[in-house]
Amino acid sequence: MSIVKAKDLTFEYIRRDEEGNVDGITTAIDNVSLDIKEGQFIAILGHNGSGKSTFAKHINAILHPTEGTVWVDGMDTSDDANVWNIRHEAGMVFQNPDNQIIGQVVEEDVGFGPENMGVPTEEIWQRVEESLKAVGMYEYRKKSPNRLSGGQKQRVSIAGVLAMHPKCIVFDEPTAMLDPNGRKEVIRAARALNDVEGITVILITHYMEEIIHADKVFVMDKGKIAMEGTPREVFSKVDELKALRLDVPQVTLLAYELKKRGVNLPDGILTKEELVKALGL
Amino acid sequence: MSIILDHVSYVYDADTNMPVKALDDVNLVINDGEFIGLIGHTGSGKSTLVQHLNGLMKATSGTIYYNGEDIYDNDYNKKELRSKVGLVFQYPEHQLFEVDVFTDVCFGPKNLGWDDKKVQLKAYEALKMVGIEDEYFYQSPFDLSGGQKRRVAIAGVLAMSPEVLVLDEPTAGLDPKGRDELLNKISELRRTTGMTVVLVSHSMEDVANYVDRIVVMNKGRIMYDDVPSEVFKNYKELEEVGLAAPQVTYIMHALNDAGLKVDCDVTTINEAANEIVKALKGRK
Amino acid sequence: MLRDITLGQYYQSDSVIHRLDPRVKLLGTVAFVVSLFLSDYFLGYLVAILFLAICVELSTVPFKFIVKGMKTIVFLLIITVVCNLLFTTGTTVVSFWKVTITVEGIRMAFMMALRLSLLILGSSIMTLTTTPNNLTDGMESVMSPLKKIRVPVHEISMMMSIALRFIPILLEETDKIMKAQIARGADFETGGLIKRAKALIPLLVPLFISAFRRANDLALAMEARCYRGGEHRTKMKPLKYRKRDGIAYGILVIYIAAVIIVGKFGIPVGGFVW
């Protein structure tokens, strides 16, 4: 079943100068159509300014299409009557860990979403406990978020979304401000949600190594979908990725260089084990 | 011309029952014209260390010499030190405040008391160095893209004509394109000016291709201090302290373990490809 | 360091005082503050001191920790004492140069210092034993009758709790920007008033921009988590009165009565009734 579907989605915003006069129109998303199935792990790649974050905000009904339609679980995001239902089915984790935690104690923050949804008190506690356990932050439930590392804060944010029992979580560059350890923590948590809880994950990032396990990858450029396919299919096209100035995993790049030097290798090698095997060692 | 850190320690909350040793007996010599990568994970003490280099933080014990002079001497000119050792903080675009790009870059040199002509000349040179074109000079810094903002902020420090440039996580939050552009720019800058550059990062991958020497910090101490290929030989130990050697190192070791005799010291993709081709030919 | 500010900080423990309903503590603090103005004589204060001492003891917060938070108001205290000493007219005790110190002055200075210290100590007991969130919940509940006259009670308490959450973050940020500008040769310490005020621009502009950016991000994050004001909301930690809260209210009433009664008696010492 389709959880997020976009048809001919276009989003434009009007730029204004200091006096408020119209300066021009920017097309952030340009005629995008895609269909994401329930339970998938989807990655959306692209540069800053490629339109990927703007797209993400459509899934949560924070932005509405200028043209075209976005459906979340069959609900049209342009219909105001659907807004709250959409927001509780499609949760969102943002980039800056400090700017999305509302509570001053970890457990209170996780309870914020359910509180807003009018969940009864006892069930809130149950959900908070489950969510914190799912991201491995249960032992920190009484701590102040200010005392946590970046990766831990993001895991709290994930738990906060999880407690709303969404069908789908959009991660908008959740690791951009983290160090390598924090990045691993967050990606591990996201993958666990997908594997164990069956929640659809839409991961927006510019780190290649985070998307190797995705079911499907969309590469965005200038508001359009420039490439789509499985990670292997996408990474097979090293030249195209390079033209978009995106990173390619180092192994894939090495295999690509070896091929150029006449070594016989298949396209889209993603791990060092695959390389060792492909070289017949 | 060098910076020498002699048994430098720094303790947070020394007067409480929970003192934290941010720096623990650090000895380090930064020679003139070197390009150094200072690596460590969050909380390893690397940011604390760089704030000592220009006297922003004062060591709890130990001494720091800049060009042979003790910077903790009472009559030492701290302000001059701060202009000689230019420190670019994390997310430096967060300190931009002026109405236009050019005026913002002038802020640093103006504080040094230079005359207007020199200030403007230095600001102009600095903006050119980081690759900001004239058309942006009179725009508000807040209208620029993320990567541009960051370069303007770096120019703000460069305009003070530092002899040593220290950059704390200069690529944090940039996308791959912005990251590569910035690192290439810094590398080019160093080539053309001969400036000493210290690049602070938590990513080996980012710095491996650029620097001549890597200093690894862990728990406030210096763990390794050597040329990149030597440091990466300790990839297993690096892993244990939450750091990772570049992917290439792992690949080469995996190939070696699988029976292909390759030199595991290579650090770039190109070297690795050449090395593998050579080894494959040797087998045939 | 800026992050060391302890005024109003929560001290984690599990005492009787910690477990009291925040509404009891809020109303109790108000009652305590009022009680400080009910008695004219020292004996009344003695009751207040005794009451406070018992509360401190029950709260299990180390006295040293409470006093540490008072450091910030020492200056205020000194000014109060000096002003009262110098500007109260009455029977002269000593007189030198142009300064006259009177018995009334000494009495006033002493009383005011005592009143102020008790006031701060009393309210810090509340903040030390109540998590800020609990406190804002309590306030929301205590002020809820005001909803009838269209005071946005929920919004006010939400604003307060967000402010409390972001103060440490913004302080840290201030520290960082300040250092960054010092690295660019900025000077925040020397020069006259105007020069110093001007020197703050490179600090304040980035700080405001950052605060607005954070506010914007936070608003988005709250909306994404279905926040739409106080309507339809349930509470994770609803306030519920327990037996101990009833007892606490009882004790408060007894205390107020004691202050009023005891406060009517003065002790004559040094030609004056204390």
Description:
The complex is a heterotrimer of chains A (281), B (284) and C (274). Chain A has 281 residues and is α/β, with parallel strands linked by helices. Chain A has a single domain, classed as 3-Layer(aba) Sandwich (Rossmann fold), CATH 3.40.50.300. Chain A is built from ten helices and ten strands. In chain A, α3 crosses α4, α3 packs parallel to α5 and α5 packs parallel to α6. Chain B is α/β, with parallel strands linked by helices. By secondary structure, chain C is mainly alpha-helical. Chain C has one domain. A two-stranded antiparallel ribbon of chain C has the order 1-2. A two-stranded antiparallel ribbon of chain C has the order 3-4. In chain C, β1 and β2 form a beta hairpin. In chain C, α5 packs antiparallel against α6. The longest helix of chain C is centred in the middle third of the chain and has 31 residues. The radius of gyration of chain C is 23 Å and the shape is flat. The N terminus of chain C is likely disordered. Chains in contact: A-B, A-C, B-C. Chains A and B meet through α6, α9 and α10 of A and α6, α10 and α11 of B.
Describe this structure in a few short sentences.
The complex is a heterotrimer of chains A (281), B (284) and C (274). Chain A is an alpha/beta fold and 281 residues long.
Which CATH class of chain A applies here?
Alpha Beta
Strand content of chain A: 25-35%
Q: Profile the largest sheet of chain A.
A: 6 strands, mixed
How much helix is in the residues of chain B?
25-40%
Biggest interface pair, residues each? A-B, 32 and 38 residues
Q: What is the residue-mean pLDDT of chain A, rounded to a whole number?
A: 91
Mean pLDDT of chain B: 90
